[in-house]
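Run log, item B.
One chain of 210 residues. Sequence copied directly from the ordering sheet:
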Amino acid sequence: MDDHQVVIEGIKRALSAHPGFEVVGMALDGREAVSAVKSLEPDIVIMDISMPELNGVDATLQIKKHDPKISIIIFTMYSHTEYVIDLFNAGIAGYVLKEDSMSELMMAVKAARTGGTFFTAPVQKIIMEHLRDLKTGNIQVDNVFETLSLREREVFQLLAQGSSIKDIAGKLGLSTKTVESHKYNMMAKLGIKSIGDLTRMAIRLKYIEP
């Protein structure tokens, strides 16, 4: 799943060159991706991180909650430690950077098909350092979203993208009162007091583009 059509087409061409793989669906935003997965029940999902409506991290968490058996491969330009570790902990099958060759993405897909995992070298380094720090106890938790529910994370991104409370309620199938509650709970947990602060945080964390 990717918000850039040219990348999607490149992935489709690469997969078509390998017998045994069939593309059963595509999506241009994270919310559409989650819906497509629930409908189509694929064995493997290729997911970007930077997507509108719902980012790839939270889309992955929702998909894994729906069906932990689905193998998810991250294909993205972002190698931030917090993304890698969040997704690694979520049980992804692979993480490939867009600067890597398409052949590495295919290696990840083949590994996922047999129940294995594949992480490119820069990602492996991040994971190994994290595991080493866990073992030695020398680890600092600096994830501002660790206390947020999946719903609060959704509201965070939609507010940062400029959606109104009414629009968010419609998209999520909630009442405006419930969305307001999620908004204030989320902002309290993050220690922010305005939508401007929220938007700046979303840009800094690469949830949205400036």
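Observations after the first pass:
- The chain has two domains: 5-136, 150-204.
- The radius of gyration is 17 Å.
Flagged for discussion on Thursday.
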